[in-house]
Amino acid sequence: DQQVKQNSPSLSVQEGRISILNCDYTNSMFDYFLWYKKYPAEGPTFLISISSIKDKNEDGRFTVFLNKSAKHLSLHIVPSQPGDSAVYFCAASAPGERDDKIIFGKGTRLHILP
Amino acid sequence: DAGITQSPRHKVTETGTPVTLRCHQTENHRYMYWYRQDPGHGLRLIHYSYGVKDTDKGEVSDGYSVSRSKTEDFLLTLESATSSQTSVYFCAISRQGGKNSPLHFGNGTRLTVT
Q1: Mind telling me how many Å the CA of B89 is from chain A's nearest CA?
Q2: Residues of chain B in Cβ contact (below 8 Å) with chain A
Q3: Residue B91: enclosing H or E segment and its boundaries?
Q4: Closest by Cα among A56, A19, A44, A15 to A102
Q5: Omega before A79 cis (within 30°)?
Q6: Rounded-to-integer distance, Cα B10 and Cα B21, Å
Q7: Which of A26, A52, A58, A66 counts the most CB atoms within 10 A of its CB?
Q8: Which of B27, B43, B104 to mutate to test the interface with A (most CBs of A within 10 A)?
Q9: Read out DSSP for B9-36?
Q10: Are B2 and B72 in contact (CB under 8 A)?
């Protein structure tokens, strides 16, 4: 049972345009959501996050939108740049006994086309 | 890479042999984690640690054990490697755990079990 779903394995976007990466979740206990970015041969790096009490969080070119009723979040990158080509992981966090439990999606590979 | 060193970076081993992967951090973070990344599965938690000699199992812990005798080192051991354990292994650290302390990942160890 996949609790965090990234249904698009890959996405190609023209440089300068908007990239929209989507993520769906099933567990209502998730109260915090994160996006990580990963380049080949490197570890994932934290990109942006959002609490379940908000519906939008913005950081420069990156904006994450949360629709709790639809259990859906999306990451918008505007404008897309060549360095944005990477794999993006959506992650969701739920309270645990001693530490929050973080579940990752399978990732979406973003290709920025020149 | 937030002061995280994983060793070795690459390893090829035979089925049935024991393997130990090392994660060393210089950040003095309390929480440490081992993840594996596989195509079609994203990142899955193997084991984690809240501090010295304080560890717990993640979602895919079968066939793995861990030890943490010092704050800076977290070892992952495959007692008897199997081909299904061929994967890329990532160590991650977190200052205080929880949703407000994003994970910082090392650059991974690519393990091939033949």
Answers
A1: 10
A2: 1, 4, 31, 40-45, 48, 50, 56, 90, 92, 97-99, 102-108
A3: strand B87-94
A4: A44
A5: yes
A6: 10
A7: A66
A8: B43
A9: SEEEE-TT--EEEEEEESS--SEEEEEE
A10: no
Give the SS3 label for residue B84: helix
Interface of A with B (CB under 8 A): 4, 6, 31-32, 34, 36, 41-46, 49, 51, 89, 91, 93, 98-100, 102, 104-107
pLDDT of B58-113, one tens digit each? 999 999 999 999 999 999 999 999 999 999 999 999 987 777 788 999 999 999 99
In 3D, which of A43, A79, A52, A37 has the Cα closest to residue B37? A43
* Contact assignment for B42 to A99 by CB distance below 8 Å: no
Pairing of strands A101-104, A45-51: unpaired
Q: Which of B93, B89, B65, B92 is nearest to B77 (CA)?
A: B65
List the structure tokens of B29. 């973070």
What residues of B are in contact with residue A6 (Cβ under 8 Å)?
42
Reduced to 3 states (helix: H, G, I; strand: E, B; else coil), residue B105 is strand
Residues A41/B1, Cβ–Cβ less than 8 Å: no
Enumerate the residues of chain B whose CB falls inside 8 A of the CB of residue A93: 98-99
Q: What does the block give as tokens for B37? A: 């990344």
**Predicted pLDDT of residue A81:** 98
